[in-house]
Amino acid sequence: MAFNDFFAGEIAAELLKQLISISRKSCLCKSSADNLITSIEELLPIINEIKYSGVELSAIRQSQLDRFSETLRGGLELARRVLASGRWNVYKNLQLARKMEKLEKQVSRFVSGPMQAHLLADVHHMRFETMERFDRLEGRLEQRLNSMKIGAGGWVEEAVKRMEVEEEASLGIIGGVGLDLGKSKVKKMIIGKEDLNVVGICGIGGSGKTTLANEICKDNQVRSHFNDRILFLTVSQSPDVQQLRARIWGFLTGNEAMGYTSNMFVPQGNVQCEWGSGPRTLVVLDDVWSLSVLEQLIFRIPTYKTLVVSRFKFPANVVDEVYKVELLREDESISLFCHSAFGQTSIPPTANETLVKQIVNECKGLPLALKVIGASLRDQPEMYWASAKKRLLRGEPICESHENKLLERMAISVEYLNKKVKECFLDLGSFPEDKKIPLDVLINMWVEIHDIDEEEAFAILVELADKNLLTLVKDARVGDSYSSFYEICVTQHDVLRDLALHLSNRGEVNERKRLLMPRRDAELPREWERNTDQLFNAQIVSVHTGEMREMDWFRMEFPKAEVLILNFSSDEYFLPPFIDDMPKLRALIVINYGTTQAILHNFTVFTNLANLRSLWLEKVWVPQFTNPTVPLKNLQKLSMVLCKVNNSFNPSVLVLSLIFPHLSELIMDHCDDLVKLPGNICEVNSLQSLSITNCHRICEMPSNLGMLKKLQILRLYACPELKMLPPSIGELNGLKYLDISQCVNLRCLPREIGKLGSLEKMDMRECSQIMRLPTQTALSNLKSLRRVICDDEVSWQWRYLEKAMPDLYVQVAEKWYSLDWLDG
């Protein structure tokens, strides 16, 4: 018996103890830990038998056992790192989870390979059924990802809930004298002084102005005074003034339900009139930067009040009275900082109290700085804290004239991030200020340019959220805990966006990794034009303009560009000719923030996008695709939101399977001219996810739907004119998730639905016309079904099936009526 035989047994026994602790503590590593526990519990008797039997192994078999001892030793060290890792560090925990999966794979291979073929044949002649566990391991990552997409919880959903709890806790900490005093003074201006039409809240960025304004809007006394007639609008540095005026006027006149179109009548100029009998109304204008813009958004009507939130104090002849936000007191600052850094509201005994107070003091009472810097130091060793203190001490006092010093302070929180996490944070500066970023857009972009998979991208997203560097917002229309990541978007405080821009815009313009326009402008930056004689090495290019004609563009070459983001506000838009000079382009995002769908010109540039993998089109007329568009052969994701699409997929002239041979995901959301989904879409046999949502005119699905043999996700959410599902749906053998919620005129489920043997989840809430389900015999074939979300009226039929299927969970959905999600 060799010494390593004995040592392997000792390591395995110690590792087993650590794995049991991991199984109880870590969600990400639990599955690997449980499988390793099973393997090692089976291995221990064998190792002990070798240890005490006195049998001398051959050199090759002793070598195999030696290598296995090294594997176990590495596993023991890994287990200790897992147990030491803080639960907040999602990205680090993901890396450890993947190492645990690798360890599980190594152990499984050893057991099913050398040990099974040689060691066990000589010593114990046991057989191990480990290959099944190994197969489960291979599919686990995909299962975790699918569970996020079909809404079975996951990190992102947990992070959204955690952020909601954190926000409530933060408000509880700063909601003492400071916030209460601010609320009292602002309420007095709004409801206590009838002669004030326009009042304001001002303060430095990150001081809590918007938080105070939100609390005012939630206040019961305020809501009662205005009879819930409160409109909250974000203005930003580059607003569409006409659109904002139209929204305010529509709200004042009760015509908001008609929408905000370019031809809507809105009185010009600073409106003043005597509507003494009108209902009381409050409009909150957040993040106002310009006096000229503010003057255009004021309607001086006696029963109408405007609350202006800004970093600046505007003249008294425009804003009648202003409350300046007070920064946090020392005790409030310490409590908020400690909540972010330690998860409690006081300095723990194990922390260096002097060091903590020095760092808190340098945050100067700014809530945002306290939260972000505190979160960045969570679980870090004391040397990180000392380094952060030294950097903070180099800064000047923060005041209104030194906001750039706030950025330098906040930059400290970014410097301690993992390199990839930092890069993803900087990418957020590519999107317009004060706009919701679709989660799908962000994840796709990160996957394409950072060489990571979707699971790692989600982990980075949660890491940034946990460090308060972005905010995850759940769409109000979801209303329960079973939403998918499609209903979650990302927002970012404008100070944090400024930080991302500040860090990205260093260096020569041609050498920057991100070429970004910080705000909307009528034309491209002059700095870009002056440097067109050289190549631009940017990986991400983001443009934000109004209408662009062919003559408005100038030639630029981007040999390394992989992501192009085109943000604009207009009725027509000429796609940039320099797309031809982006040979590596992998993701193209086109978003129109105007009031109506824009007509795109120069769509022929798409014929040169051979490497394009992701295309997002929002609020545009989608031109008709043509068969020569074959270079889109690598396109995997196509999303069309608020688009006109009816003639885009003409089945009489198009062979979509040739144009999109590798398309795996198709999203069509709020496409109001879609009446019938073209049957040629069902010829794209590579499709794995099909989402037709909020398309209020679609009345029919293709009869050949069953041709999509690889389809796993089918979402038909909020299609009120859809009356039936085709019988061929039963041929979707791989379908895992079916969402028909809010299809209010859907009359029945076809009996063929019982053939969906892979179906795991069905969402059929607010399908009021479906009163009876197919026979229990047909439904009993849904062997994989684990969750059904439905209305109370039909739940009893599912519950009857629940008795025969113990793994099935029937969730009765709550009624949810809200139009808050329209505020994009």
Q: What are the salient characteristics of this protein?
A:
Rossmann fold; LRR_dom_sf; 5-stranded parallel β-sheet; 13-stranded parallel β-sheet; 14% strand; disordered N terminus; alpha/beta; nucleotide-binding; leucine-rich repeat; 24 helices; 824 residues
Question: Overview of this structure, please?
Answer:
There is one protein chain. This protein has 824 residues and is an alpha/beta fold. Among the domains are: 6-113; 137-147 and 154-172 and 328-490, no CATH class; 179-257 and 277-324, Rossmann fold, CATH 3.40.50. Helices cover 40% and strands 14% of the residues. It contains 24 helices and 26 strands. The strands form five sheets. Strands 11-12-13-15-17-19-20-21-22-23-24-25-26 form a 13-stranded parallel β-sheet, with helices on both faces. The chain has a five-stranded parallel β-sheet with strand order 2-4-6-1-7, with helices on both faces. It has a three-stranded antiparallel β-sheet with strand order 8-10-9. The longest helix is centred in the N-terminal third of the chain and has 34 residues, at 90-123. The termini are far apart.
